[in-house]
């Protein structure tokens, strides 16, 4: 009986040691929102923004139509009991007069209506095909005057989370102009539109952080590489877009995760009370869920672990991990290089002279990010395991806590979302092993060491969405309760759009 009691006590002691020295198994905070169905990202294109896109788009469309030459297309027909297929080829536009009037409307619940009125176009080409099983060949000319097209496009969420685009041409108009023209225009809309929404649905973040140069601090550099490797935003649509008379707005998942991490995020986005503002051309709304989903997956994937030893420290900081201080009369002497762990914690110097120490920072609670009162803030609680290496073996001598709290002031600089960091708290206290109160002296040193490097990394920022396609004009960033808003005007990049239109025309008229 005594023997069994001894085993039980040893097991209890072992479990308590594990709790003290390891990160705690995930336990969902009660204040996390559990109601599903709310988007963490919304992109709102207003009527003003759509009008600008229409003006640029119609200009480029007119250019491409007037230059069409040598294109081909297949046309099937069935009239008066006669069916057939005709291949049009070597078709050239002889004359084209752009539409005299164009309009664009947003119509609830899910439609965008585009209309072009009074266009003239003359075509000439060759054809070959079969009509009632008889082969036919010849030439064809067409002269369409005062042509009008009214295109109704419906946007819905597809099963895969992308936006499904269905274009329909008014049937009265369809009867007045050849189906070959209508079908080609319809294919351009339906085939090219999903590419834009697919780009918005998945955003690779790893590449955005490659430009951050932290070679002067291996510890922070390794941390950032670990944090950003395989990182992406899952921005698939969770609901149909919202269409009102004033704007078109997506409803997106907004989950940041890693490409090799398939576990679901066990909480949902809170409600974003975004209102109905449409005075600017474009709005981006991002919930704090974006950051908390990243922190959850980084925590569960052991990506927030920080290792500090003599090999990873910059030269000026290497003496800090020594238990005994060396000669302070060196030519490159400064205050930091004169410090060592033995001075800060004499108890370590007495017990382990002339040795090297190392530290392992393990988060033992899931970090939490919040938007409140014009700032973002983060709380991070760590266990700090301290080791001594006397040249023969590595021995753990102490377990400490390190509580970190910082505020982020988000800002827009050079078309990037960046952050100004202010560390409010970096407290260290011993909980196991050496109990010297001097352990608290490591806190300001750690703050001095980590602070400037974190500030430098966050200052680099990441590009605004769609930066490769549009130029942002006077973007404004506003922090609300639980979400951030970016309101901006923009100028569409004509060259990028022209390339997309050329691809769309090539796929339809030259395939």
UniProtKB/TrEMBL annotation:
Signal peptide coordinates: 1-22
UniProt keywords, alphabetically: Signal
Domain Lipid-binding serum glycoprotein C-terminal stretches: 276-488
GO molecular function, a single term: lipid binding
Superkingdom classification of source: Eukaryota
GO cellular component: extracellular space
Protein name: Lipid-binding serum glycoprotein C-terminal domain-containing protein
